[in-house]
């Protein structure tokens, strides 16, 4: 997601040529609808096949046996900072179930809360909860605050949560908002003394509220935050681990010209605000690309305006998509990346006979226990209407 104003900027620059690899026209199978701003999904991998959907307005709802449970799993609406119903980037933004959820009942959420310090717009909260004796209802009184991050502006809040193959919790944070990362001398994305504009890696099992994995790249330097795993990001709107290779794919929303997909690696600098995509941003020309990790793919604003990260397909329904990274653009575009000879090739993905636009806003993606991929959409912007839907990518 990005600022309301920047949604209207566009360029007329195309990116790498689109290949003609044979991939079937997928079908979008409606699983459930009537959601208000569905922005995140996870499943506990406990064999129940339940899908947990986060609504931006604070409710976590369960899709069970093809229907939405009558009661929400959790409702934190009273904890959220006030959001504009027409457009906002605040709210309940992320969820991740502990790898041992079946035995410990722990899960984690990321949300926007009020901040009393007038120097900041709000604060982002990472919190731990546990399930109640009813497997479909969380214990609302079990909240434990893991982390609080002051946010100077209302937008670019990141919010993706996921446990990696190493068992550690990864967290994405945007650059603090506004436009151009106009924070400090070099911007939050390049400042290793702030958590903003980063992907974090923490251990939520060893100590309270958390500990730092000893092999994190910036451990031991007082001028650098040890929670940081990678930096130089603007607004990482959805990352995911390939369940087969362990690679961490991240979609980073651009400013006015370029949207990018990165493979996140330990300690790497992904460029923002020096670069936007593979291009100089600050300064507009003559910037140094030394020691920067460039995206594996990008697209210009003649194609889309706000990238939404997805998953590498590891399901069984569509063999032709196996190993391909499925993602989209907020404006209703579906894409995939395929690796060929060490390069990632960018392609449109046609759905229901619509090769360039599914005529819905794409808020997020989800992956179930079997590796099948879901799309979280809504027909209008904001949370005025409950017209959000969850679709399964099918054939």
What does this structure look like?
The protein is an all-beta fold and 395 residues long. It has a single domain, classed as TolB, C-terminal domain (Neuraminidase, 6 Propeller), CATH 2.120.10.30. 1% of the residues lie in helices and 39% in strands. Strands 2, 3, 4, 5 and 6 form a five-stranded antiparallel β-sheet that branches. The protein has a four-stranded antiparallel β-sheet with strand order 1-27-26-25, with no helix packed on it. A hairpin with a 6-residue loop joins strand 9 and strand 10. The N terminus is likely disordered.
Strand fraction band? 35-45%
Largest sheet: 5 strands, antiparallel
Number of strands: 27
**Tally the helices: what do you get?**
1
Instruction: Indicate the CATH architecture.
Output: 6 Propeller
CATH hierarchy class name: Mainly Beta
Quaternary state of this entry equals single chain
Secondary-structure class: mainly beta
């Amino acid at each position: 997601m990005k600022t309301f104003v920047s949604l209207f900027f566009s360029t007329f620059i195309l990116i790498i040529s689109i290949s003609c690899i044979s991939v079937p026209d997928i079908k979008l199978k409606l699983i459930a609808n009537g959601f208000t701003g569905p922005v995140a999904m996870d499943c506990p991998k406990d064999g129940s096949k339940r899908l947990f959907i986060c609504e931006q307005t604070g409710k976590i709802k369960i899709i069970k046996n093809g229907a939405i449970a009558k009661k929400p799993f959790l409702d934190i609406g009273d904890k959220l900072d006030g959001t504009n119903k027409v457009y906002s980037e605040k709210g309940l933004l992320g969820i991740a179930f502990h790898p041992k959820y079946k035995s410990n009942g722990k899960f984690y959420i990321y949300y926007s809360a009020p901040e009393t310090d007038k120097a900041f717009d709000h604060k982002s909260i990472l919190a731990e909860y546990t399930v109640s004796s009813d497997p479909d209802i969380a214990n609302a009184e079990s909240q434990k605050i893991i982390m609080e991050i002051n946010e100077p502006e209302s937008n670019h809040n990141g919010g993706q949560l996921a446990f990696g193959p190493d068992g550690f919790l990864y967290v994405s944070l945007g650059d603090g908002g506004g436009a151009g990362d106009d924070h400090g001398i070099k911007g939050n994305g390049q400042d290793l003394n702030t958590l903003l504009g980063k992907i974090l890696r923490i251990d939520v099992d060893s100590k309270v509220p958390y500990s730092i994995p000893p092999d994190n790249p910036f451990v031991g330097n007082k001028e650098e935050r040890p929670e940081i795993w990678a930096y130089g990001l603007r607004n990482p709107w959805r990352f995911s681990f390939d369940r087969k290779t362990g690679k961490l794919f991240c979609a980073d929303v651009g400013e006015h010209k370029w949207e990018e997909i990165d493979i996140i690696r330990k300690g790497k600098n992904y460029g923002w605000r020096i670069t936007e995509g593979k291009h100089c941003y600050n300064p507009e020309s003559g910037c140094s690309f030394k020691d920067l990790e460039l995206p594996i793919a990008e697209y210009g604003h003649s194609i889309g305006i706000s990238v939404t990260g997805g998953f590498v397909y590891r399901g069984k329904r569509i063999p032709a998509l196996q190993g391909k990274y499925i993602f989209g653009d907020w404006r209703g575009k579906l894409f995939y990346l395929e690796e060929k000879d060490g390069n990632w090739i960018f392609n449109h993905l046609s759905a229901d006979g619509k090769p360039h636009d599914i005529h819905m806003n794409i808020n997020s993606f989800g992956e179930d226990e079997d590796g099948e991929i879901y799309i979280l959409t809504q027909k209008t912007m904001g949370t005025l209407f409950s017209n959000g839907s969850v679709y399964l990518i099918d054939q």
